[in-house]
Amino acid sequence: MCYSDDARPPLPPVRLVSGAAADHGDLTLKSSDGTKFMAYFARASKPTGAGMVVMPDVRGLHRFFKELAQRFAEAGVDSVAIDYFARTAENDDRSDTFEYMPHVQQTTMESISADVGAAIDYLRSKDGGAVKSVFTVGFCFGGSASWNQSASHPDLSGCIGFYGRPARSEEYISKMKAPLQVMVAGADAATTPEQAAEFERELTKAHVPHEQHVYEGAPHSFFDRTYEQWKEASDDAWRRMLEFIKKHDR
């Protein structure tokens, strides 16, 4: 997994915070195939009109991503974090003891995109903030899945992915429309610098609007408040994400 139960999302730099989360809590959403799945919402007290679908790592919706939804709300972005595993998991336990891999292996692009679609609909509803623009952000397994939403939901305003695996996205590049933000950990053991560079070349060749940022020497999962040595990188990632949202907000 990317994040353990002890991990915590970095706080946005103070200058980027517009207020506290006005409200937040657990939520149940219904996918287009009828699947009910757990989610977590966070409403901004000073909304910008942008919304964010938070896509977790391989362990699904655990505490790190619930807190991350709150951090986006503090920056003025109404947010909802989702889980992937309602179709196969017997319960909603996503603690460190959750054996996630059998469930990861049973997910499909179609099921994930359907769940993202339900989250998009929620954010566009009055209850979700009636946002004008919707973005996705994901990490590891969710990083690639976030980029893939550019093909599944081309009406998105942008898709952000941290330390995703290019191999999981390559087959969808030709269908991508929404802009991508590719956040690369320079010392990621799962994705080499060469693979990241090749992914960028393929995106450029396919004329997919994108921007890539490489954090030299940073390990997989560096975006974590407990990694104090990577605070500057995390601050920079926050700044770039919020600039990306502002740039593509429509």
Detailed description of the structure:
By secondary structure, the chain is an alpha/beta fold. It is built from 6 helices and 8 strands, in the order E-E-E-H-E-H-H-E-H-E-E-H-E-H. The protein has helices spanning 63-74, 101-104, 109-124, 141-152, 193-205, 231-248, and strands spanning 21-30, 36-44, 50-55, 78-82, 133-139, 158-162, 180-185, 210-215. An 8-stranded mixed β-sheet has the order 1-2-4-3-5-6-7-8, sandwiched between helices. A hairpin with a 5-residue loop joins strand 1 (21-30) and strand 2 (36-44). 50% of the residues are buried. The model has no long low-confidence stretch (mean pLDDT 95).
The whole-angstrom Rg is 16 Å
Q: Beta fraction of the residues?
A: 15-25%
Q: Strand order of the main beta sheet, please?
A: 1-2-4-3-5-6-7-8
- Give the quaternary arrangement of the chains: single chain
- The parts where pLDDT drops under 50 for at least 5 residues are none
Average pLDDT rating: 95
What best-fitting shape do the alpha-carbon axes yield? globular
Helix content: 25-40%
Total of DSSP H or I helical runs spanning 4+ residues? 6
Q: Main beta sheet: strand number and arrangement?
A: 8 strands, mixed
Alpha-beta content class: alpha/beta
Strand element count: 8
First-residue to last-residue Cα separation: 34 Å
The helix/strand series, from N terminus to C terminus, equals: EEEHEHHEHEEHEH
